[in-house]
Amino acid sequence: ISKKLLLLLTLWTGIFCNYACYSIIAPFFPQLARSKGLSAEEYSLVFGIYSLSQITFSVIVGRSLTKIGPKFVVVAGLFLTGGSTVLFGCLERSPGGAMFFWLCMAVRAVEGAGFAAYLTSSLAVLVRTFPTDPGYYVGLTETIVTVAMISGPPLGSFLYTIGGYSCPFVSFGAVIIVMSVASYFLIAEEKPDASEKSDSLTLKEYRGLLKLPSGAMVLVTVTCNVTADAFILIALSEHLNQFHLTPMIIGSIYLCLFLSYGLSSPISGKIADKMGGEFLLQTGGCMIMTVAFVLIGPASFINFKPKVWMIITGLLLKGLGAGPLISCSYSAALKAARRSGLAEDFRTYSLVSTLVSFSIPLGNLFGGVTTGIMTENLGMRLSTTVYGGIFLFLAVICLMVHFYEPYLHKKKQEKKWRWMKQNLGEEMPLVKKDPSSGYKPLENGRIPSQSDALLSHCIVPVSEKNDVILSDNKSKLEWLDDPAQAKNFWLT
Q: Which residues cross the membrane (predicted)?
């Protein structure tokens, strides 16, 4: 087995165990919390602190990832989540009341921080390991999440039957700790290139990525998708009670959502990697999700009573439409970052990974907070109508970005071209032709297209000299005599 495959299995096992633990807390913890004297509001805060901690630490860890290094962050993140999961299983031995409440809050906050660190760094490591297929491997990771959410409750119930409350948490936590040890040996200590920055990511870099339409759409699409998932997971059970179904059938209906999403996520990611058109895929996905929410309610403007077959069809469509929203978002943001001049390095992967790992808990938090309010005040049918409208609007935005972003990029390139012409005049450089490829390969392996050649990473001939590099460093035009320094120089 190759080292890459072992690393992939290790990262996915860590993600599987974390999401499996996430899925088993809801069935088991409320009963323990009530026996320890906690109210519904108090144990809801225990659930909420996990997402708040993830939101906070995904940004903190994301900024420091390039400085600390991915190996330490992955290992430390897994160790924190594994240890916290074991401790959470031991809390049944804690005294009740305020002591139990604050211990739960502390353990869940540390667990959320650890998982934020792990998810952010593991996505960046994954894309660095497989740089040619980022959408596909992010999509496969979402499939692992789906498998964990499906298999977590039955596995947890089995372990609960064997050893009580602590058994599932201690078991999953122990596996996570073992994965942290495995990660230590599988993730290489890579020294950054001489031209690659190793300091912390700055807010300016995040703002630069968010100014790109693709970067902003990562936040919007991922957050909306996860919020919708949280709404369905919380509200669907009560919606199905009107049909007097058995728990087994209700559980099987939930599977429809997970199964279709687990299939569509890697497939849409693979299509995006090979053919592009991420926002066209997302437009189609949002349209499918609009139809899905119309059926799940059904929407208030449809004169039909709720039916089980409509809900099942809606859940299948919801999972199918959600597939492109995370995998294609990552791929689109990465491509936009490259076009804007960011280097093909771990720093760029960390930027995009931070946006994704920030958006997921943000969506969980929004979904958890708003679902009860919406169903209480609007009812299920009107609530699903609102979600259908949101995704219809999002489909329009995705379609606009598909056409607008290339136009925006072209305008920026024309502006750079004019700048070069004004500053260079008759000495306008030409890209050196190569008989085999048409353009001379760059130091990092990329071959620029004709539209990017003079305006991004450029290797150019000047007079009788050897190839040199054109750089604009804070508006100061300079010629670099050493092509080896070219990797991170571009016009801005």
A: 45-65, 72-88, 100-127, 139-163, 169-188, 209-236, 248-267, 279-302, 308-334, 346-366, 386-408
